[in-house]
Each structure stands twice: as structure tokens, then as C-alpha cells.
Amino acid sequence: MKVLLVGSGGREHALAWQLAQSDKCEALYAAPGNAGIRECAACVAIDAEDVEGLVSFAKDKEVDMVVVGPEAPLVKGLADRLREENILVFGPSAKAAQLEGSKGFMKDICAKYNIPTAAYGRFTDIEKAKAFIEEHGAPIVVKADGLAAGKGVIIAQSEDEAIAAAADMLSGNSFGAAGHEVVIEEFLDGEELSFFAICDGKTALAFGSAQDHKRAYDNDQGPNTGGMGAYTPAHMMTRELHSQIMDELITPTVEGMAAEGCPFTGVLFAGVMLVNSKPYLLEHNVRFGDPECQALMKRFDGDLLNTLVAAAQGDLEAARSEIEWRNGTALCVVMAAEGYPGSYVKNTVIKGLESAHTIAETTIFHAGTGVNDEGAIVNTGGRVLGVTALGENAQEAQSRAYEAVALIDWPEGFCRKDIGYHAVAAEEERNLRNTQASA
Ligand code: AMP
Ligand code: GLY
Fold first, then answer.
1. pTM, to two decimals
2. Which of 22, 147, 155, 391 is a plausible cystine mate for 305, CB 3.0–4.6 Å?
């Protein structure tokens, strides 16, 4: 098969790395790709949001299958256009992508199909929003309805703060059209995890769990980011919780979307909050998480192309036996440019990648990288590398990843030093209990 992968981040490098290993993959293109992706795919200079450019490239090259990494081209209708041209695509239609593109849409699906989620209201009028906030009290959560690059969520600690956030969003000042409607919802206090499912429009198969570290600095301090590291599986995952998430959150979403006339094909990435052991849906994304995907791909032990093609063809059952995982934990440490998520310098030189690759079970996925005139790898974005290692347990995965990080020579970069700390602590506690039990 000739395959086109859309996107340029660490998530896409991890997908490219797996797709290229498939026996069926005879050509792999990436648009636009990055300096790491070009090691396993032919990169073409088409922007990930240039829908017509991507469609005409796919037709020209007689591409059989398109895998879409980011949400923006999906919301813009890339999958619909490819289906019109009879090209297989892994990714939802624009209508189905509204699960991520409109928080109000997603909440209404939850309400209609009895999916547990925080109580909410949808507002375009500040007076009505204010009345709702005053009725429910703080803490309360205010969200811009549309895509806001992960910045459109305010956890307000007071009613005044919530009213100010809603007024700011509705004015269009901070989020433009994405804020013309807001969702205001109950604050859920609990532990968060990510859950993935591959969907073919009718059914869903679980595709792993993960935990992300969103804050920029150690001990979950500092500003929110796109994600500074992740590991899979999530340390609190159990057989019971897995079934509960599939039965209560994922399956009703997929069945509900089919009943609404917008069947969901692609990967559903559910943000889940566990409150007193009960899972609630915080949000749906219609793509893999970044950097969760890097950890998932490191641990995946099937044929990714076969799996995604089966979903795109509406025959996911054919892929059930493909979904296998290697034992242990996979963990990704993100290296970012100093200053990220604020302003940072570009085109600083990164060395030592070859020696970092020599650490056992470790792969360095590139995100914002390019090559300068001298042929050196440089940063072109804020999140730059995903140093990803597999270990028998979280502790081993963590120490391998940081061993590799130590070999990377990039003075202008930084990373968190505590990725996976919840999982390592949970393992230590388990070991201690086992030792006490056998003593
Ligand atoms: P979202 O983009 O909707 O996932 O929100 C981003 C982050 O805000 C989530 O990952 C949570 O950490 C937090 N969050 C969102 N909604 C709630 C809620 N209802 N209660 C508590 N925290 C929330
Ligand atoms: N790491 C969070 C996300 O991809 O949305």
C-alpha cells in the first residue's frame, strides 16, 4: 500500500515509525513531516491543514490510505474530501470531528446517550452564563466551545473569576470564533487518565491507556503545556476500570454517533476523570494524544497499518488479533526549548542523538526539528524531542529514558525530571506491600 501520513509532530513520528514497519507498507509519505520522520518516510512540503493540496497529492501519487495525525484538518473536512475521492482514510468526518471541535456538541451527545460527565450548560449570552455560575458556585470550569489549542479551559476558583473568563471568551478577544459559545460545567475532583479506542463507525476496540504530564515543570508546577511527558499503561488501570470505560464512555459514544448519522471512524481519545473510582468523561479528542502516542507506539506489538486500514474499511473485527502490547511500561520524556510554552529561540543545534539511541529499548521521536544549512539537527518548535523507552516496569522505563536524555547535547533545551512519578510511586508501594506480606 501507498500511505500518506498527515502532520509534523512527535505523534506523527511515532506513527510513521510503526507504519513503516508494516509488511504492507510499500511507500510512506509524510506531509509535511519533520527531520526525524524523514528517516522513515518521504516528506512532502504540504501543510497539514491544506485540505485540497493533500487531496491532490494523494490522487497524483495514487495513495491507497491516509492517516491523519492532528485534529485541525479533520475538523476542516479532510477525511470527507478523501472519501469522496474513494481514498481510504483513518480519521473522522468533519461532522464526527465535532466531538473535539465543539465541546457543546460533545456534552449534548453525553446527555442524550447517558454518558457520565460533569453537569453543564451551553451559553452565548453573558447574563445567562452569569446566572448559571451564581447558581452553581465555585470552583467551576469555563470552556471555549471551539478548538483553542488546549488553552480554552479555565478552572475558576471564584464566581468572579468564572464570570470574567466567560465574558472574555464570549467577547471574542482571546479565542476568536472558538469562544463565541461557552460550556460551563461542574468541577470534578479526582484522578485523570487518557483512554484510547480505535473505531470503525460501528464498533470500538480499546487501544491502551496513558497518563500525561501537562505542567511545564517538576512536581506539576508552572504553566500548562501540550504535554511534557506520558506513560502507558496508566498506573491505576485495572480490568474492571477498563470494562467500565468501554461500556459507559466509549461504546455509547460510538453507538450514539452512528445513531446521529455521523459515525465515528478513527481514534477516540477520551480524557477521563476518576471520581471515587467512577469514570467521568472530561472530553473527547478525535486523534492520538501527543506525547501519549509516542509511548503507545513504543509498546504496540501488532501491525499498525493493518489495524488502521481495518478501521478505515469499517471492518475492525479483522484487526482484533493485531492489537497486542509488549509487556511492561513505555514512557516518553519531552525535551522542549528553554522558555516553552512561552517564547523560545529557534534553530539551536541538537547533538548526541546517535548515542542516545544506543540505550536499550529507547527511541527518540522528533517533534519540532529541522536541518540547518550545515546539515545539523535544529529545533523549529517548542516541543522538540520525545525520548521514549520501554521497560519491564515504570521504574526501568523511566531510568532508560533519562539515561538517553543525559546523552543529548542541547544546552538550549530542558525537560521535566519526574515523568512517570505517580507510576513509580505506585510500584514502590506495591513492592513494599508484597515484601510485608511475605515477611
Ligand atoms: P479539556 O480540554 O476539556 O480536557 O480540559 C483540559 C483540562 O482541564 C483537563 O485535562 C482537566 O485537567 C481539566 N478539566 C476539564 N474539565 C474539568 C472538570 N469538569 N473538572 C475538573 N477539571 C477539569
Ligand atoms: N497530550 C494531550 C493532548 O494531546 O491533547
1. 0.95
2. 22
